[in-house]
Amino acid sequence: MTSPPPLGSSTASHVAETVAVIGAGSIGIAWAVVFASAGVRVQMFETAAGVREGALGEVESMLNDLSRAGLLAEPVADVLPRVTMTPTLDAAVEGAGFVQECVIEDIEVKRGLFAELDRLTDRRVVLASSTSTIIASLFAEDLPGRERCLVVHPANPPYFLRVAEVVPAPFTSADAIAKATELLTRVDITPIVLHREIEGFVFNRLQGAVLREAYCLVRDGVISPVDVDTLVREGLGLRWSVIGPFTTSELNTRGGLRRHAEVIGPVYARIGVERGSDDPWTTETIEHVASVIEQRLPHPTWEENVHERDRAMIRLASLLRHFDNPLATPKPITTSLM
């Protein structure tokens, strides 16, 4: 496992381009940092006066944090001028080749905003939403330029978690998908293109599955909330940061995913029924997943791949050994009486 490169250090050629970021909340700020760090000009717009006034300061603060951590390829003084706050929506999209919407999770708000964006921009400009759960069909289906609309949902925060889901609607053009994935790649974000729309997309469905079980376990008196966080932080989270859940299953059991599904699958099926979900893994799905994962493993034998996993996790443990995480261990609450 290697350390992530500084933002903006991708070897891909950076075409001079401007992106409009609509909304200056936490996701809008994060996108501005990602785009500007990769050499892209950013024109922001925000309707709330207080948020608008503090936005550039938030961008500068995050750039400084990234720079101090060695995660910025250029001096902050070179990156910050690429971000401007515009007075109107019209000004924000003027000359922009791509629009990233970052407003609240409200279908009606998005429907109205995308209607305005569709009216104000050239049909060649991609209109992308940062929504975490709402499919594009619900807010863009009736637009004249609906073929350039889609969802680009980033893992949060995207300047650190460099992956984003690209979720096209049935009406989204192949050109719009290509433009979105090309831009993401240029700014050091790995694009994951979903095959079809689905509420919540994939990132939040996976996260939601863990949270559903975690809440049930706490509710049923099995474990404390703090201990759930500790198990994920010190166990599942660390392992999944090196290899995902499918590769974990492949390497945890001699015989790989097929053997894992044979031994553990029935247990997970019973747990699912206990939680009201009778949705066991099918033989066809197991075979498909196993074949795909096996083809992507770096070594020909199970033992070699296990050793590669262990070496990567040892390097990760070494990096984290002296890392002081103030959120990891809750500190006692102290009070003073006046």
Automatic annotation (TrEMBL):
The chain crosses the membrane at residues 20-40. Residues 200-259 form the 3-hydroxyacyl-CoA dehydrogenase C-terminal domain. Signal peptide: none annotated. The keyword Transcription regulation does not apply. Pathway: Lipid metabolism; butanoate metabolism. Gene3D superfamilies: N-(1-d-carboxylethyl)-l-norvaline Dehydrogenase, domain 2, NAD(P)-binding Rossmann-like Domain. Keywords: Membrane, Oxidoreductase, Transmembrane, Transmembrane helix. Residues 18-196 form the 3-hydroxyacyl-CoA dehydrogenase NAD binding domain. GO terms for molecular function: (3S)-3-hydroxyacyl-CoA dehydrogenase (NAD+) activity; L-gulonate 3-dehydrogenase activity; NAD+ binding. GO terms for biological process: fatty acid metabolic process. Its EC number is 1.1.1.35. It comes from the Bacteria. Belongs to the 3-hydroxyacyl-CoA dehydrogenase family. This is 3-hydroxyacyl-CoA dehydrogenase. The lineage of its organism: Bacteria, Bacillati, Actinomycetota, Actinomycetes, Micrococcales.
